[in-house]
């Protein structure tokens, strides 16, 4: 008599791979620490210019506006430093750090991006990110900057709730960022 199995089954299909292959090459730029002291990080990531402009928070829980258009990056640098160079001129900045990162990334709850970065010298740091592209208009009674701050506060609240809900997945302790670890390692 053939053997019968229960109607409820747990089926699994898996395919193995050796490792993840996402390597990110970052070069960071500044000029006499003017940008970093103002909370602006300019980098070339895999050959593409980016600037992260700090909009609040602290080291562990930070808020940034990301600039991807070289004209916007140039304007941001010029507004702060008075230096008006183009991307072809490295925006008049000097290279301050070069690091390669192996990134593992996941999406949770259909919108929260979790990344775990391991830098070429062994340092590891993770982030939970929530990114939205938003168009703001100065017609709602709030300035564009106030609208950005309000949106980032709501996003920050959602990230905090996400991390509380999945607290079991995140190690306790104070994280150290990539550049902090890089500069500590290369301190003379």
From TrEMBL:
Transmembrane portions of the chain: none
GO biological process per UniProt: thiamine diphosphate metabolic process; thiamine metabolic process
Lineage top rank: taxon: Eukaryota
Gene Ontology MF terms: magnesium ion binding; thiamine triphosphate phosphatase activity
Protein name: Uncharacterized protein
Organism per entry: Mytilinidion resinicola
